[in-house]
Design goal:
Elements: H1 8-22, H2 26-43, H3 54-58, H4 66-69, H5 79-89, E1 102-104, E2 113-114, E3 117-123, E4 126-129
Antiparallel strand pairs: 1-4, 2-3, 3-4
Helix pairs in contact: 1-2, 1-5, 2-5
Amino acid sequence: MAVIKANSNDVKMLARLMRAEAEGEGELGMLMVGNVGVNRVRSGCLDFKSIKTIPQMVFQSPGGFEATQKGYFYQKARDKDVRLAKKIIAGERYHPASNSLWFFRPAGACPAQWYNQPNTGRYKKHCFFSPTGANCPGVYNTY
C-alpha cells in the first residue's frame, strides 16, 4: 500500500531524483534520498507545509533539491531506479533517513544540526537531519 499518492509519472520522477542525488551512494543511498522526498510530501510541516505531491516536492524552490536547481536532473529513470522508488512509496524506511526532511553532502564532518534539526546520522557522504516529533509529528506517523 502506498503511503503517498503517486501515478507512474510520479514514480519515475522520484526515481530520477533518487538517481540524480545519490547514484554514487549505491542503492541504499538512493533509497535514503527517496525517504527524504516521501517524508517531505507526508510531513505537512516546516518548509514543506504546502508540499502535497511528488512534483511539488521535486521542484520546490527555494528549499528543494540541488539536482533540480543546478541542472543534473536530466537522466531517465532506469528499471532499477523505478523499483527502488516503488519501495519508498510503499513505505519502506532506511536509517538514518527514516524520518529525515533534509540531507546534504558536507566537505567534512556532519554538523550537529541543519535548519535547527538534529543530525540522525551519515551514510557514506550524505548527512541526514530529522525534525523533532513536536515540530513535525507527520513525519513520525506509522503506516
